[in-house]
Amino acid sequence: MHKIDFDKLLKDRQPKDIDELNQILQEEMLRLNNAPRPEFCGVSSDQMRFLLYDPFAADSPFGFKDFDPAVLDSCPFF
Predict the structure, then answer these.
(1) Which of 1, 40, 64, 72 has its CA 20 to 30 A from that of 15?
(2) Exposure pattern of 51-69 as b/e (b: 16+ CB <10 Å)?
(3) What is the pTM (predicted TM-score) of this model?
(4) What SS3 class is residue 36?
């Protein structure tokens, strides 16, 4: 699990209120969740969520490749 280094994160950004701090933290969490993870073979945490819980959703990064029907007709097991 990633740990956020608050000192480094807030070094150049000084939030004026709690809402601005929440926005900064939300941006950092989005960055971390979309970063490739070596323990997932380069798949991000967000992509892994789709793979585990909703692999066939319309916005899932995983799915079946569309083939030309003529190509499928030439395959003996289709």
Answers:
(1) 1
(2) eeeeeeeeeeeeeeeeeee
(3) 0.64
(4) strand
